[in-house]
Every structure is written in structure tokens, then in C-alpha cells.
Amino acid sequence: MSITVGCDAAVGGFCGLLESEIAGGRRRYLMLVLASASPRRQEILRNAGISFVVQATDIAEIPKPGEPPEDCAQRLAQEKALEVFRQRPDDLVLGADTIVIVDGEILGKPRDAEDAARMLRLLSGRDHLVTTGVCLVGRQLPAAGGQSPVANSEFIDTRSETTRVSMSVLSEQDVLSYVATGEPIDKAGAYAIQGIASRWIHEIEGDYFNVVGLPVALVWRMLNRSQWPVAGKN
User: Fold this and answer.
1) pLDDT tens digits for range 69-94
2) Residues 133, 94: contact at Cβ < 8 Å?
3) How many other CB atoms are there within 10 angstroms of residue 212's CB atom?
4) Interatomic CA distance for residues 68 and 36, integer angstroms
5) CB neighbour list of residue 3: distance below 8 Å, 6 or more residues apart
6) Whole-model pTM?
7) Which range among 21-35, 148-162, 200-214 shows the weakest confidence by mean pLDDT?
8) What domains are there in the chain, each with its CATH number?
């Protein structure tokens, strides 16, 4: 499984510090591992000055019958985080999953161009909700606040963020032309608010970055709550 590094030299030179401390037999800092191959989530973390590495998962993003949307997003985020944590138990792992909800229906990533067009027709001229589940998994710190993890003890912090989005009316030509660009294919709800589809999003209520794919302010609060020293987190 490939692992890519999202560290930025501008963030305190953390990657070099981590390597030198491991070589010296000490490990004061943890690496944050993003359990997602999404380039959008990676860009959001980089822009926020949070260093990380990427280790993607192959969790099937399928809602369970009758599963409430928020529960679905949180469950999938947790499954992704736990899968990577089992392979990297000495690090902090961040999982995330984004879904779109309209008329109670959960819209994940479209199966194909036809499914993308179906989703866009559903969203046209209406409000919808975008929910991202976020899960942070790591070892528990000692009660006294020491810097060594507690053996066989872990914390799982799972939360979600929801944003209301208003989309303009799309003509059939709008739908077909947009699908033909390929942009909708790997996006929940078949659109990218930061891309071509931005021309049709006239109002949002809530966290913009949540719609892009990662509510970074929520992630930052979760990292601080974990009390672990992580790259980009003082």
C-alpha cells in the first residue's frame, strides 16, 4: 500500500524532527495519518498548516438500509480510521466521509455518468445538506498528561459537521455538459463546490470546507482535544 507525505517545510520542519527523534530512540510527537486518498482533503490540511501522511483505505462507502445520514457518515469515517490504525497503532489516524442528503436520500459518489446526471437533477433548484463524518483514533495519553501512550488503550473521537447548500436550477444541457467534464464522478452528490459547479451554488449555511470534503475547524478542535503534540499543532 502506497503512503504519500503531506508535510510542508514551512510547518516548523516537523518531518525532520520526527525522523531524528525516532533515530534517537525517543518519540515525543505523533504523525497524523489521513486515511483518505482525496486530494481535496489533503489540500485543506496543507493550507491549514497541519502536516500529515496519507494511507488510503478501500472501505466500501455503502449506507446500511434505514441508516440515518449522520450515522452513516460517522460510521464510514470510523471504519476508515480504524482500518489504518490497526496498521499504524503508534500514530494518530484521521478518517472522513462526506455524503449529500436530499429528500432523506443519501447521495455518495456516483457509480457512473448516468448516476451523476440523476443526482444533479435531484439537486437542481433545491437546498440540500452535506454531512462529513470525521473520526480521530489514537493511543490514550497517561492520566497525568505524560508523553507516552498507554499500552492497549485507545481513544476514538467521532463527530460530524453539516452544511446547508442552495443550488440554482440546472438545465438539461447544464447537467449533461457538466457530467461530460468528468468532475462529478468522484464527488459526493456529483458536484464540486470548489470547481465548475461553483457557478450554481448561490448560498451556503455552515462550513464551506465541510462541503469540499473536510471540516478543518472541527478537525483542529479534535486534535487539540486529543492533547497529543502533532505537526502544525502547538
Assistant:
1) 999 999 999 999 999 999 999 899 99
2) no
3) 23
4) 23
5) 53, 54, 55
6) 0.83
7) 21-35
8) 4-226 (3.90.950.10)
β 127-139/201-205 pair status: unpaired
Lookup result for grid cell 490504525: 85
Tell me the pairing of strands 127-139 and 154-167: antiparallel
Q: At what angle do helices 172-181 and 113-123 cross, to 10 degrees?
A: 140
User: Which conformational region is residue 167 in: left (phi greater than 0), alpha (psi within -120 to 50 degrees), or beta?
Assistant: beta
Say if residues 185 and 115 touch (Cβ distance below 8 Å). Answer: no
Going by their DSSP bridges, the two strands 53-54 and 92-102 should be labelled as unpaired
Beta bridge partner(s), residue 132: 98, 161
Annotated active-site positions, please? 97
C-alpha cell at position 200: 450554481
State the residue for C-alpha cell 478537525.
Answer: 219
How many residues in the chain? 234
Q: What is the pLDDT of residue 31?
A: 81
Take residue 29 and report the three cell numbers written for it: 510527537
**Average pLDDT, integer, range 169-187:** 97
CA 166, CA 132: separation in Å to the nearest integer? 17
